[in-house]
Amino acid sequence: MPDYKIIKLDKNLILRLFEYSFSIIRCFKRPIVLIFRMIHNGFPLKAVTRDNLDIVFHKWSTFYIYIKGNKWRKMDNYYEIHLKKSGLSINYRDILEGDLWSVFGRDEYSYLDVANKDVIDIGANVGDSSLYFLSKGANKVIAVEPFPSTFGKLQDNVLLNQELTENAVYCINAALDCDSGTINLDPRINDTIGLKATHLKSGNEVNTINLEWILDSFDLESPVLKIDCEGCEYEVILNASQSHLSRFSQIQIEYHMGYKPLLDKLTLSGFGTMVTKPVLVSKDKNVLELGQLIANRINQ
Predict the structure, then answer these.
(1) Spatial CB neighbours of 294, under 8 Å, sequence gap ≥ 6
(2) CA–CA separation, 263 vs 252, rounded Å?
(3) Residue 228 above 90 pLDDT?
(4) Is residue 81 part of a domain?
(5) Are residues 42 and 171 in the same domain?
(6) Residues 153, 276 within the same domain
(7) How far apart, in whole angstroms, are the C-alpha atoms of residue 184 and residue 190?
(8) Which residue among 32, 104, 160, 212 is the one 20 to 30 A from 135 at the CA level?
(9) Are residues 136 and 32 in the same domain?
(10) Structural domain for 291, as ranges
(11) Alpha carbon of 187 to those of 98, 184, 191, 197, 222: distances in Å?
């Protein structure tokens, strides 16, 4: 009797492939084979583009970024991606660098009105969100990223877009905390997506800063605050004074363990709030409750 392999079809993937089938045909050589391999094996997926570029896509989000017409240029050990819609360029070395799909594909920060405002970007990672804010008209962005290896990539991407970022992006290698001090971080870590800055006995010494320090150091009035710091949001927001929080015009937080205490604190501090539906994600035997909390100061 023949040995058949049962293929479990991913309904969401099938729908995506149907929706973007013409884009796949336009972008890749042997598109039918590519679609079959994607259905059969999923990711990672090796593909050859129409302009003879070999790319290994490790997840749908980077595949989406390519088929939307963004130009990829092969460099020595990374790709330079030119984002057609925004005119920005991003260096892309690893599957876990930044989140171009969420920032530019899904417009995750479209809730924030940053035009002609200053933005504090906590958890700037490789700079995708900071560059997004500038492309939407922000005056300047204070980009805060704790991990040394990721911070270097943030600086590279700011330099790559120098015409836009000169005197407009200020990069700070620091971890957000309630108090000023120092923390030791592993300099070898490259995978910082979903990783909270946690103090080690030894490692690279990185400063810790608080929201008050940032506000006063850059003399900011009614800035916009974005926080994606993989769990530090609770300690920082819940321990911040209402007077400091009320200095922000808008706040968007990616919450990781539910939104209720954050929502209560921001409501008491004079904000109208909304939240996205939580998504349950398993990580290291724990279940995270992820989503976005958006707060707008009521009396502005």
Answers:
(1) 111, 112, 250, 251, 252, 273, 274, 275
(2) 11
(3) yes
(4) no
(5) no
(6) yes
(7) 15
(8) 212
(9) no
(10) 101-297
(11) 18, 9, 11, 12, 34
Mean pLDDT taken over the chain: 86
Same domain, 138 and 194: yes
Same domain, 120 and 37: no
Average pLDDT over residues 130-142: 97
User: Is 84 inside a domain boundary?
Assistant: no
Residue 74 lies in a domain: no
pTM: 0.87
C-alpha distances out from residue 219 to 114, 205, 251, Å:
17, 26, 18
- In whole angstroms, what is the distance from residue 144 CA to residue 127 CA? 9
Residue 293 belongs to a domain: yes
Residue 182 is predicted with a pLDDT of: 85
Residue type, 262: L
